[in-house]
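Data deposition worksheet. Section B asks for the primary sequence of the deposited chain exactly as it was used as input, without tags or linkers unless they were present during the calculation. Section C holds the resulting structure in token form. Section D is free text for depositor observations; keep each observation to a single sentence. Incomplete worksheets are returned to the depositor.
Section A, Depositor: J.P.
Section B:
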Amino acid sequence: MSTLSIDTHIDALDAAGTALVEAAAAAGPDAEVTTCADWQVRDLLRHMTKVHRWAAATVAGGLTSPHRPGEDTELDGDDLVAYVREGHAHLVDVLRKAPADLECWTFAPAPSPLAFWARRQAHETIVHRADAASALGPLHAPDLVTPELATDGIDELLSVFHSHDRSRVRVDQPRTLRVRATDTGGVRTVRLSERAPRIEASADGPADCEMSGPADRLYLMLWNRLPQEAVTVSGDASLARLWRDKSAL
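Section C:
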């Protein structure tokens, strides 16, 4: 569960979305998104605005059941950039104005629906900001995410997405993978088996493999936006390779 406030997440969403659009505009629609195979910047922008508008519709409409995102936009170039900027600003505005007792659909437990959507859209946008930045050159993690937000995002990735039945990070025999942020002290233990991983907020017991490093680099590596060489892998490196090969969402 996040220790960061709703306002912190909305502020992060605001800043990351603005930076994403600026990087995308600078790179141009034809530029390769090196962190996402087969994507050009226009593909990233179309995905991003679809997600932002879908989330905004869920929150603004108080929708209590899942709904399909709208149709893909055919806009391109400057018109697409403006459309993405508009959708991002609308989502930020919707979240800032939403009541604390908002009732709407979510897809994971959270202290409140508003807390869920603020956190989810913050990290969705931070990660895709990294994608936009990759179209301009090598990623520099401290420019993309603070240690506190990175630690929070590691927790979300593991406890929301990889404790779910859809996670493909599985092994035939029980193994233990540890994730350690060396600057913030955040530690998660990932119990691997034939079932979905079990996530523990502790460093109890031995681990077969540990991936460690500054929280910002660890966060982007776990989201497969930085290579595993960006962090330290100790122990059985096959578990780190398993993460690389099977963790994509």
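Section D:
The helical segments are 6-27, 41-60, 77-97, 113-134, 147-161, 215-222, 237-246.
The chain has a mean pLDDT of 96.
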